[in-house]
Every structure is written in structure tokens, then in C-alpha cells.
Design a protein that fits this description.
Helix content: 25-40%
Largest sheet: 9 strands, mixed
CATH architecture of the largest domain: 2-Layer Sandwich
Number of helices: 9
Distance between the termini: 47 Å
Number of strands: 14
CATH topology of the largest domain: Dihydrodipicolinate Reductase, domain 2
Mean pLDDT: 95
Radius of gyration: 22 Å
Shape: globular
CATH superfamily of the largest domain: Dihydrodipicolinate Reductase, domain 2
Strand content: 25-35%
Low-confidence stretches: none
């Protein structure tokens, strides 16, 4: 079993601690949190071993799970990689693309693996249809959340929209050509609501909206491609595939038939793929253990996360 340590014991850090403790692939060694009082309370309540310094934690484990604010990612990740330890780090990978590039180079030199916590890749609804998304040409994503002070240290693009940027980059096999965006700061010092239009070299267009000041939560994406429409509800974990095929010569009475101006008839087929329930955070952590143990490429690489960060920062630069 891989010895794991968690850096950062805030809201998400406590979830990671619990899941690593339950996992069959990791031995949770302990955690370090800069807030000594918080660390003491968590150690007393849950019985996790509390380390007095990051260096002591790093020395005791094979893998460090970094769950700290984004602005601290670069410095702590450098320490982990420099010590030759594998790195799981929450999204966004770093604050700047340049920092991410440096971490990627260091990891390659040290021969350690890194994975980034873009957890929506492990959302069971997205997993159920991702292999059916083939050459989408229009994508629309809405990620809306009620206000929560946690996360407002970064713009909503890095807090929320980057999830959809990463998911879209994983299915659109083309380079970004052009970005237009707008953002508004309503309650925070950084934008709380943003919209971005991303155009790809192959003609695909993605329209993304993210808000952290909404009255309700929503996490939906729609993918349009030749003869198919695919919807993914990341929040309710359901998905739908609507396909169009050439209509048979004698369709049954209940068939839905569309006819275009040229007289071509298409039949509409509805498919609701089965969604296997999972704990997405546990699955991403255990997939990283598989990558380490089997010497394979992590599902969400540092390079992919750096690309998502680069696009996110280009979106922010348009405000």
C-alpha cells in the first residue's frame, strides 16, 4: 500500500483524509495543516496523526495530497517533487501557467508522477457518455453555485469554470483559436460571474457560463455533434443521448421523424445510458494509486491541467 499524507485540512482536506483512510490502496500516514489549532482539533476528533511540519510529512510518505489554497500550490508542490515524492494536487494546478510548466519539468527530472484534482472527469454521468462524444462542434456549459466565501480568493473562472474547461479540452481534439469573455465582480474582489466563448481550430465553439452568486446550483453541459446531442448533468449525475439516423422506409406509429427542406427524413432515438454510482474523489485518488503502482499515465495529467489553466487565465485576461 502507498503511504499517503495530506497537506491542508480545511473543508476539502477533511474529505480527502476520510477517503484515504477508507481506501484499500493507501495507508493514511497523517496530515499537516499550518493552522495549529485546526490541526489539533482534527487530530483529536478523528485520530489522524498530526505532523508538526511539511518536511516531516513529506519524509514519511510516498505520496502527498495537496489540498491547500491555490496561491500556495507552487511552493509546496516544489517541495514534494524535490523530495522525490508523488504528487496529487487539487485544481487549479498552480496560479500561473509558468509555475505549472516548472512543476512538470521538475516531475519529469525526478521521475515522479503527478495528478490534478479535476474531479468532474470522474463524475459518473460524464464517464457514462465521454466515449460517445465524438467531434462535437458546439458545446454549452453552465456551472452555477450559490455564494460561499470559500474559494473567493480566486476568480470564478479558476474556482468553477476551469472544471468545464478541462472537461471540454478532454473531448475536443483541437487547439484553441480564439477566446472572448466577460466577467463581473459583484461581491468579491475578483469576478463572481463570467462567460467565455472559446473557438477551436477545427470549428468547434464552446460557450461557458460560471457564477458563484446564483440562487440555485446547476452544473450542466450539452454537446452537439453530427447526428447527435448529448447532455450531462454533473450535479444530478444523469445524462442523455439523442441520436438521429436515417428513417426506415416504414417507421412504426410512435417513431419521431424529422424531414428537412431537401426531403431527407431522420428518426430520433433517445438513450439514457446507465450511470454507475461512485465516489468521484475516491476514484480519482485510487486511479492515481493505479498509475503509480502500474507505472502508467494518470487520467488527469499535470500537462492537461496546465493547459486548462492556460485557457482559464486567457479567459480572465479578456475581462
Amino acid at each position: 500500500m502507498l503511504k499517503a499524507g495530506v497537506l491542508g485540512a480545511g473543508h476539502l482536506g477533511k474529505i480527502h483524509l476520510k477517503l484515504l483512510k477508507e481506501s484499500n490502496q493507501y495507508e493514511l500516514v497523517g496530515f499537516f495543516d499550518e493552522n495549529k489549532e485546526n490541526a489539533r482539533l482534527i487530530a483529536e476528533e478523528f485520530g489522524y496523526k498530526k505532523f508538526d511540519s511539511l518536511d516531516e510529512l513529506i519524509a514519511a510518505v510516498d505520496m502527498v495530497d495537496v489540498v491547500t489554497p491555490t496561491l500556495s500550490h507552487f511552493e509546496v508542490a516544489k517541495k514534494v517533487i524535490s523530495a522525490g515524492k508523488h504528487l496529487f494536487i487539487e485544481k487549479p494546478i498552480t496560479n500561473t501557467f509558468k509555475e505549472a510548466q516548472e512543476l512538470i519539468k521538475m516531475a519529469a527530472e525526478k521521475g515522479v508522477k503527478g495528478q490534478v484534482g479535476h474531479v468532474e472527469r470522474f463524475n459518473p454521468a460524464f464517464q457514462a457518455v465521454s466515449d460517445r462524444i465524438e467531434n462535437p462542434m458546439f458545446i454549452e456549459a453552465h456551472r452555477l453555485a450559490e455564494f460561499n466565501p470559500r474559494g473567493t480568493d480566486v476568480p470564478v473562472v479558476l474556482d468553477l469554470m476551469i472544471h468545464d474547461i478541462d472537461a471540454i479540452l478532454s473531448v475536443v481534439k483541437s487547439e484553441v483559436k480564439k477566446i472572448n469573455a466577460s466577467g463581473v465582480s459583484v461581491i468579491s474582489d475578483t469576478p463572481d460571474i463570467a462567460n467565455a466563448r472559446i473557438e477551436f481550430e477545427n470549428g468547434c465553439v464552446a460557450n461557458l457560463t460560471a457564477s458563484r452568486i446564483s440562487m440555485k446550483n446547476m452544473r450542466k453541459s450539452r454537446f452537439f455533434q453530427r447526428d447527435a446531442y448529448i447532455s450531462v448533468d454533473f450535479l444530478d449525475k444523469v445524462c442523455e443521448v439523442v441520436k438521429m439516423k436515417d428513417a426506415p422506409e416504414h417507421p412504426d406509429d410512435f417513431a419521431m421523424i424529422l424531414q428537412n427542406a431537401e426531403g431527407v427524413k431522420k428518426q430520433i432515438y433517445f438513450d439514457n445510458p446507465s450511470v454507475a454510482p461512485n465516489n468521484a474523489i475516491l476514484q480519482e485518488l485510487e486511479s492515481f494509486a493505479d498509475a503509480i503502482n502500474n507505472n502508467t499515465t494518470p487520467i488527469v495529467t499535470m500537462e492537461q491541467a496546465a493547459k486548462a489553466l492556460k485557457i482559464a487565465n486567457q479567459v480572465i485576461a479578456k475581462f
